[in-house]
Specification:
Number of domains: 2
Strand content: 35-45%
Number of helices: 7
Largest sheet: 17 strands, mixed
Low-confidence stretches: 1-26, 126-146, 338-346
Structural class: mainly beta
Radius of gyration: 22 Å
Oligomer: single chain
Mean pLDDT: 78
Length: 394
């Protein structure tokens, strides 16, 4: 359930979760005093170094294929060939180790296997030809080599969006029926790998009568570096119907590696892009950005051992009214970008406040049998100088 809320908030992909939330208590805002958060020396320089992946060639792989896989276009073959002192048409020997320098994509072993199968079946296929024609926001001109509309921002140095003690409570209606509750909360800082981190905790549960049909009790926590604003650890405990899962992920942001254990399975390690976020932290990271109407923002994201780029388009500025009040907001649309193709499997609109907090107050999404609506019910907001604690229009 929390996965659903977070995916709606940021990732823009529904993955079959049920819609079970319930709202309790009175609506409103509570202001609390801000508290100092420990800081540490930034590791950005170490993390932003030239990135090199050592790829072991599998049977059937070619420079042309690897160029598509790691750079999104066949022109990437030239970069790989140059980095390995090869001709661009050189044949690759199985087992050879190639240096992939500054890749734009970070496919896992399984993803490479699937891509190679598809490539062999249709080697002439382009990765740029499957943008939905009805999509008004993204066009075929958007690619990893030509992303003129995606804003290239320096990483934020200051957090004026949220702080220790923030708590957001959401009501979710499925087919116009209130069905459950979810909260997003910034807890007291803890230390992870000798770094101070905000625990960003998402909780969700179903309530009667929906809990009798499909009980839900989820807790997921991202440990978000208070200085460099990225994930160092992610863990969750998911209970949805008959499904149970416990996951632990540890992010080595300097070496761009992720250690992951799912339930009692053997742990796995995968490459991740520089400055990777998990699904919860990317929501908070987006709130730190100086967003503008008409711009797109890209956040490298890793989830369940898979890497992709989350792209958020800021469509327009407008006022929205929910039971809590009227808000001056930006309408944003999240998309997921695989290779050079933008995909949005669901029609999702999200309204975030147009102040520096960028608090999501309303999310709407169409589903096969109707629609769902997530609206802010209660908010506990730490005081931030120069920013209102009420968020609503007077």
């Amino acid at each position: 359930m929390t996965r659903l809320l977070l995916l709606l908030l940021m990732a823009g992909v529904l993955q079959g979760c049920s819609l079970l939330f319930v709202a309790k208590g009175k609506t409103g805002f509570v202001a609390v005093k801000s508290q100092e958060v420990p800081k540490a020396k930034s590791l950005s320089r170490e993390m932003d170094r030239t990135d090199v992946i050592h790829h072991k060639v599998e049977d059937g792989e070619t420079l042309r294929f690897l160029g598509k896989a790691y750079f999104g276009q066949e022109e990437g073959a030239c970069q790989i060939a140059k980095a390995n002192h090869l001709g661009v048409h050189s044949k690759l020997k199985q087992g050879k180790i190639l240096r992939i320098v500054n890749p734009l994509n970070f496919p896992t072993t399984g993803e490479l296997r699937d891509q190679l199968k598809a490539f062999k079946e249709n080697p002439a296929a382009s990765v740029n030809n499957s943008v939905k024609p009805q999509d008004p926001v993204f066009t075929p001109k958007d690619s990893v080599f030509n992303e003129k509309d995606i804003v290239q921002l320096a990483r934020p140095q200051l957090n004026r969006a949220f702080a220790l003690g923030e708590k957001l409570v959401y009501e979710v209606k499925a087919l116009s029926v209130v069905a459950g509750e979810a909260t997003l909360e910034v807890d007291s800082p803890v230390t992870v790998e000798k770094r101070p981190c905000y625990p960003l905790t998402a909780r969700a549960k179903a309530d009667f009568p929906f809990s009798a049909i499909y009980p839900v009790k989820d807790v997921q926590t991202s440990y978000f570096d208070t200085t460099d604003f990225l994930t160092l650890k992610f863990e969750n405990n998911v209970s949805e119907g008959n499904y149970r899962a416990q996951n632990l992920e540890k992010y080595d942001q300097v070496n761009h590696r992720l250690w992951r254990r799912h339930n009692s399975d053997d742990p796995e390690e995968v490459d991740i892009p520089p400055f990777a976020q998990d699904l919860i932290s990317c929501f908070y990271y987006f709130r730190l950005l100086p967003i503008e109407v008409g711009k797109k923002y890209l956040i490298p994201t890793s989830s369940t051992g898979k890497n992709y780029n989350l792209v958020i388009a800021v469509v327009r500025r407008e006022k929205v009214t929910i039971p809590l009040g009227t808000f001056d907001c930006y309408l944003v649309k999240p998309y997921v970008k695989h290779d050079t193709v933008f995909r949005n499997s669901e029609d999702i609109d999200m309204w975030v406040t147009a102040d520096l907090r960028h608090v999501p107050v309303l999310i709407k999404s169409a589903i096969v049998i109707g629609s769902i609506e997530i609206s802010l019910l209660e908010a506990t907001l730490p005081e931030i100088k120069g920013i209102s604690n009420s968020l609503v229009e007077p």
